[in-house]
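[Solved] Which block belongs to which protein?

Original post:
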Amino acid sequence: MNDFSKTTMSNSDFQSLVARDYDTITAHGISLPTARYYDETILGYLPSMPGMIVDAGCGTGEFTRKLTSSKEQILAVDVSSVAIRKAQASEGTSRIDYRVAAVEDLPSMIPPRSCSAIILNRVLHHCDDLPTLIEALMALLLPGGRIIVLDLDCTGNACSQLNRKFTLVMYRLCVLAKGLCAGTLFGRIDDLRAEARAYRSPGWLDHLGHEPDYRWTMIRDAFRSMSTSYIHKRMNWRFHLFVADRP
């Protein structure tokens, strides 16, 4: 189980706080090419079969909107009402059904065997009791349906720890230098202001400070315990992709 003993606020309150700056953090804190690479990889694993597509932990809907090329019904949920309101304001079509709900609420919201895909994009590190949750989500899939997980290893190795410390240092440098140095150090000279804005945004440090003690192996072990065949792909930085089909 994840350790939330160091978290000083509820998960929903934290997500609402981060929602203020989520798009800036995603676009520039990770870098646009990297964010696109993650999104395109997930989209490439969507199964070509009918059935509802669920984006669990959708945030402000930046990735969810990329799912509208599919003709299937799309359900997007997030625990933050602030994030959902931002998502609804950005999406002008009726193709996406946005709802305020936790990932753990999905089994009570969706009939069994009704989904072609459930996407958990950078959200499972906020969830607890992963074996029980993954088993419940698997039951929502149609035969041949797929769970797609992209998530990070918060404590996996020395490089990850160093990266987190480096990010904190960069944040403080940007504040001291009024954002003039960040883009140069990261090789994106044409986007200095946006880069600095990401590091100055309140949600960025809040996110770093509230990562639970979590390891990618928790997800791997949860799927192994179900004897489910799966694909495990190591992405760049400290992210991992995990894909599992329902027989």
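(Second protein starts here: sequence line, then its structure tokens.)
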Amino acid sequence: MTSKTITRHDFLRLSVSFVGSTAVLGTFGCPGDDSTSDDAADGSSGGTTSGQGTTTQQMEDSGSTTNEPMTSSSGEPPDDTGSTSTPPGTDTGDSGSGSGGGAACDADPSVEILGHPGHELLVPLADVESGAQQVYDIQGTSGHTHLVTLTPDDFAALEAGMMVVVESTFDSGHSHTINLTCV
């Protein structure tokens, strides 16, 4: 197995993303979640949308690790705008059988939305198998909405037994990190 590295910037960014959003949003919830359906209807809980990020990680028995520097889909180092990113050289196709590889999806992927009071995401197995890009609305019972885009590479990574980490669009002053896995 080749040695992989992660930059200090990416480590801190991922740490803050996972720990910070869990601690802050998990404790306080999403702003605007206490709004009524009238608030949502008159647009008072609206916001803006921005780019989304995607990270894939190989799942192993000892946990999930990614140690390579991240690059954007254009091959440039990632910036803080949430551009799509995957580790360089990551094979998100079907890697055959073995630990952490092979066709791992035989049911809908499990979804974890960090800081998610009321937000819901269901990714049907049929979407994973089709591999076509999909955009999902994760509003659920929340008073505001976020969109999540899953790309063909994300679906291939799920099929290969990898964890996919995506960021929702920005709305009501925040976004959500979403972890998807097929087990």
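Accepted answer:
You had them paired correctly. Confirming on the second one: The two ends are 23 Å apart (CA to CA).
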